[in-house]
Fold:
Amino acid sequence: MAIQTDRFIGRCILALLAFIFMLAPGGAANATVYHNVTISTDILKAGDTISNDASFTGAWAVKADGSGTDIKVHGVSVDTANQLGYGVYAVSGGTTDVAGSTITTTGFGSSGVTAVTGSSIDITNTVISLSGQQAVGVSSNYNSSIDITDTKITAIGNITDAIKAINNSYMSITNSTIVTSGDWARGALASSGSSMKITDTTITTSGDTQPAVDARSASMDITGTTIITSGKRTGASAMASQMNITDTTITTSGNTASGASASYNSSMDITDSTITTSGANALGVHANNSSIDITGSTITTSGGAARAAQAESGSTMNIRNTTITTASADAYGAIADTNSSINITGGSINTSGYGSTGASAHRGSSVDVTGTAISTSGEYSYGVWAEENSSASVKDAAITTSKMTSYGVYALNG
Structure:
């Protein structure tokens, strides 16, 4: 019995030495690994700094591995500098709670916080900073779940994602701030059967190409949020997805930048929201082979040849009790194109530039206007216009034009 006891004590000492070795400078590449145990802040103390070995690709600083693992990262600084590295990593059903901490990654393709294969992570009152190319701030992958509250995420670099949920995962972010700077950099991405909720959060992006908020074969709810973009990018985009936008402000300033866009047979609902674009050829709300419902909202464009609301390629758009304003030449309040339809009920449409029509239908499309006030003040700016085998219906509407060359209702070529 004494020999067995001594062997047990020896094994405990070896395990303790191995644990100390992992935390010591120059130890294993993966700075902290916990497996199938519960770790409390008695182990990770507030003020601690945890880092991994920058010379090892794919190493992690903190890892929760396996069902039953529960790591508390409270008041801790986590730093990673290696390629494809992880700051906080939960895998195979592990759980992690991150609060009051600072997480910094600088390596190519690195991730600040990641949950994969059925894992879950809660993040509260934390600062996450990325400065590597193709990095990710917070990632939920393969049936995992992450909730983020009162957190700031900053991503500097091209092809980065501040937050993303992919492969049938879930993510929520509330009362937080996201800032990205770089081309192809997104504030939020949900894809491949995942869902995401963005609530009372500010998302600011600079750089071209990717949308600030992007849903691809996914569902996304955006409520009480502010989205600001300054490059040639869309504020909120749905591709083969369902997106709900409520009580949200979207502002874009780049040329060809859309406020909200639905494509590839998507469905989008916009309620009590404000969308503003200032770039040339910009689109306030855009439907391409999709359906969009807009209720109680405000859409304003000020760039040349901009379109406040456009439906094309077999799309349907319903606009109810919404205020639409354009303030440039060759702009449209609402335009249905290529076998699409727009139904406008209540609200108002005001255009003030040369050749700027209130509502129009082109190439086999239709526009129906009921109880809407339409006003144009520029030359050759029609109230309602239909051409190329299209149709227009106007009921109980008030149409005002101020120039001799501008007709209230105009039909051309069928």
